User: Which sequence fits this backbone?
């Protein structure tokens, strides 16, 4: 699963090993989410405006942290 949230703090730390990636609306290279994602080798994009409004639970997400892009993948069911 990919976590899409406003921001992360230490309370999210137990969930990071369960995640495939992280997207936050707030943060920078030294934000909690970005630092912990690097420690776990997770793709992470921070500073995505309105991410929690754009994406909904159950969306199939394509997260490319190398390019800094995140989007919804269209499926036959959608």
Assistant:
């Amino acid at each position: 699963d990919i976590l899409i949230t406003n921001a992360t703090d230490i309370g999210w730390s137990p969930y990071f090993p369960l995640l495939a990636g992280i997207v936050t609306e707030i943060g920078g290279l030294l934000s909690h989410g970005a630092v912990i994602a690097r420690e776990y080798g997770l793709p992470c994009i921070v500073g995505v405006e309105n991410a929690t409004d754009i994406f909904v639970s159950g969306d199939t997400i394509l997260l490319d942290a190398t390019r800094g892009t995140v989007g919804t993948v269209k499926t036959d069911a959608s």
